[in-house]
Amino acid sequence: MHRLIAGDEYSHFELAEDLTSHHHHLVCTQCGRVADITLSDEVERSIDRALEAAASSVGFLAEHHRLDVLGRCATCTSARS
């Protein structure tokens, strides 16, 4: 299990990536909704290269990444308009 913090009041649990496919999250900081997203192989390679470079610049060996994008979902965005 992997716990994803989705704001002050919300947590989201999902199976570890070992049991699912590699993906990232869009996390609504207002309502706590979490959407899974899958990026293209090209984008994943670009992210890997950027993170490996940043990590190695401080002597850290990056082995894996998880990306959580924080913002507001469409429902919460339209409710604020």
TrEMBL record:
InterPro entries: FUR, Fur_C, WH_DNA-bd_sf. The keyword Ribosomal protein does not apply. GO terms for molecular function: DNA binding; DNA-binding transcription factor activity. Pfam families: FUR. Keywords: DNA-binding, Repressor, Transcription, Transcription regulation. This is Unannotated protein. It comes from freshwater metagenome. Gene3D superfamilies: 3.30.1490.190.
